[in-house]
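G., the chain you wanted modeled:
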Amino acid sequence: MLTEHHGFAHEHPEHKEQIHNLKGSDAHFKKLFDQYHEVNKGILRIEKEIEAASDERLEGLKKQRLKLNDEMMGMITKAA
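Predicted structure as C-alpha cells:
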C-alpha cells in the first residue's frame, strides 16, 4: 500500500536524466509518463480511501501502472 505519491522518476532515480531527456524529446514517452502519473494518483486516492473503488478496479489500475512502467523502462533501455 502506498502512503505517499511516488512518481516514475522517483521510483527509478538511476534513470532520472534519461527520463528527463525522453520526456522532452519523445512525445510517446511523455504521453506514457503522464498516463503513469494519473494512474498512480488514482491508486493512491483509492488506497488512502479518498475515493471508493472495488478490488477489481484497484487491481486493474495496478496492472495498468505496471504495463506503463514496463513500456517506459523498455524505451529507456533502448535509448541508453
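Helices lie at 8-11, 16-25, 27-47, 55-79.

Shout if anything looks off.
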